[in-house]
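BUG: 3D viewer hangs when loading the predicted structure for this chain

Environment: internal workstation, default settings.
Expected: structure renders.
Actual: progress bar stalls at 90%.

Input used:
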Amino acid sequence: MPEIDQKAEFDWDNTKVAVVAAKWNSFITDEMLKGAVSALKGRGIPEKNIYTMRCPGSFELPLSCMYCIDNLDVDAVIAIGVVIRGGTPHFDYVCDAVTRGITDLNLNTSIPVAFGVLTTDNVEQAVARASLEKGNKGAEAAISACEMIQLEKALQRVKD
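Structure tokens produced before the viewer hung:
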């Protein structure tokens, strides 16, 4: 069985990515956004090809990502948010809606949407996962988006 070559030379100069970060818990999403942008630049994507925008909260991420897919010529979208467990079932409803919404976008569009949404029990867990020193989850989502772009391009080469 032939293996698809996903490591072939890749030109990131023309790659465009949107990063949508929730304003809610911005003291955490700000760090995740910085990590995502830094990772994209580290791959070689020019700053002019990285669109960043904010939506009110994590619940609004799927629709905001869809707006990006519909209105921007992007190769991928990165959704960044934080949902911290509280004393009500609100946490469960928001987590389920965001996960389902982003999953639906991935399955119903040809644009990968990376899931950079933290779902934590407390603020301390969220801060640790957004830390640039300890493995920023925004950066990890950006790397995932880049790998999905490479996968699709590799499959297109096989098809052609």
